[in-house]
Amino acid sequence: MTGDTMQQPSGHAQNADQIAYWNGPSGQRWADRHAAQESLLGPIAEALIDRARPMPGERVLDVGCGSGATTFAFAKAVAPDGFALGLDVSEPMLSQARAFAPKGLPLDFVLADATVHPFEPASFDLLASRFGVMFFADPIASFTNLRRALKPTGRLAFACWREPKENPWMMAPLMAVYKHVPKMPPVGPEEPGPFAFASEERVMRILKGAGFVDMAMEPHDLPMDVAIGGGLDAAVDGALQIGPASRALQGHPPETYAAAKASIREMLAPFQKGQSVALQGAIWIVTAKAT
User: Fold this and answer.
1) With bands split at pLDDT 50, 70 and 90, how would you rate the model's confidence at 62?
2) Which of 42, 94, 97, 126 sees the fewest Cβ atoms within 10 Å?
3) Of the candidates 234, 237, 274, 230, which has an alpha carbon nearest to the alpha carbon of residue 257?
């Protein structure tokens, strides 16, 4: 598809920037790297699913499902009589999800904005997400809409990043790039973005405001192999293709790019062990009940 003809979901007006981002070149880059990203984030999906405890016969809503790996996993867990619905605003990634979906699993995908999508009320047992809920412009409105889709006995489980300083796997390459380019404008603590749910106080406030109860946030620390088993060159290339270091370099000339690439390599080299380049990652796994 071209950018002119690509389908985009209608959504909440305040989410327009995010919808444009995930359907533009950046969304396509994430889609193109889906296999590598899944290798990187697979352990987080395992931790989330272990905590969410999907049971055979349940209906699961997977928000921000991307290229569908988590939806596939949930569908396997609830098969044969359950069902998993993957929802995302990114047509490039949902196209891959539909293409790669294992045959015979009880699942479907919908291109939609979770803030305004008219879910069937009280129709899901589990609302889950791996890094798909930090980008809402009005998170209380979004989670209120999502809670309506849950049965009264329904529950919530999602993974989100903790503070940037606790996630050097993302931030260390960015600091290397900042030796060569101006810092990007800071993202406010209430603005959508990867670290928008880092604050325990804020997450609790949002979920309470949306009507959830029995909220809990469990910290998990885990190594992130940014090389994904491909060695130092793969680690450097990954930092340059997606993520904050990549965004900071957009629009800069080739000589700046080359210098920044050398700095990223120098920064990552001490962490190389064999074909792995592992830096620390830190997440919350958040759980709650609908009522």
Assistant:
1) very high
2) 42
3) 237
* pTM score: 0.91
Task: Spell out a b/e string for 153-169, using b for 16 or more CB atoms within 10 Å of the CB, else e.
Answer: ebbbbbbbbbebebbbb
Q: How many CA atoms lie within 13 A of 49 on its CB side?
A: 20
- The residues near 253 (Cβ < 8 Å, ≥ 6 apart) are none
Query: Does residue 75 lie in a domain region?
Result: yes
Give the whole-angstrom CA distance, residue 166 versus residue 88. 27
Residue 28: other Cβ atoms inside 10 A: 18
Structural domain containing residue 134: 13-164+186-225+282-289
The greatest distance separating any two alpha carbons of the chain, rounded to the nearest whole angstrom, comes to 58
* Backbone phi and psi for residue 137, each to the nearest 5 degrees, phi listed first: -70, -35
pLDDT in tens, 117-129: 999 999 999 999 9
The number of domains in the chain is 1
176: in domain: no
> Do 265 and 194 contact (CB within 8 A), yes or no?
no
Q: Is residue 230 in a domain?
A: no
Confidence of residue 1 (pLDDT cuts 50, 70, 90): very low
Which H or E run contains 202?
helix 200-209
214 domain-assigned? yes
In the predicted structure, residue 11 carries a pLDDT above the cut 80: no
What spatial distance separates the first Cα and last Cα of the chain, rounded to whole Å?
43
Interhelix angle for 91-100 vs 25-32, to 10°?
30
Report in angstroms the alpha-carbon separations of 211 from 28, 145, 196, 208: 35, 10, 20, 5
Q: Which helix (H) or strand (E) holds 159?
A: strand 150-161
